[in-house]
Amino acid sequence: MIDINVLEAEIKSGKISYSKTLLVDFIIKLGLALHFFGLPSHRLEKALEDICDFVDIKGDFFSTPTALFFSLQEGGEYR
């Protein structure tokens, strides 16, 4: 089991590095998977917002039963 507090401390200390582009791709794929499996829109949007806050990416989301919209910003660049 991963301790989220330890993981967060290691990321902030620089022990773990990651690519923002890979994180954005992960967020999109995760959002699509959660949407496909029917997670309620309020929970889906909140989960994606929490992940974006954790990895310091600005993200806005809008989910309906038939569509999922993403607005992700990394380093001043929207995707």
Explain what the structure shows.
This protein has 79 residues and is α+β, with helices and mostly antiparallel strands. It is 53% helix and 22% strand. The protein is built from 3 helices and 3 strands. Helix 2 runs antiparallel to helix 3. The longest helix is centred in the middle third of the chain and has 17 residues.
Summarize it:
The protein has 79 residues and is α+β, with helices and mostly antiparallel strands. Helix content is 53%, strand content 22%. The chain contains three helices and three strands.
What low-confidence regions span 5 or more consecutive residues with pLDDT below 50? none
Summed up, the helix count is: 3
Class by alpha and beta content: alpha+beta
Relative helix content: 40-55%
Terminal Cα separation, in Å?
Answer: 32 Å
Report the major sheet. 3 strands, antiparallel
Order of helices and strands: HHHEEE
Salient structural properties:
79 residues, alpha+beta, 3 strands
Topology:
Elements: H1 4-13, H2 20-36, H3 41-55, E1 58-64, E2 67-74, E3 77-78
Antiparallel strand pairs: 1-2, 2-3
Helix pairs in contact: 2-3
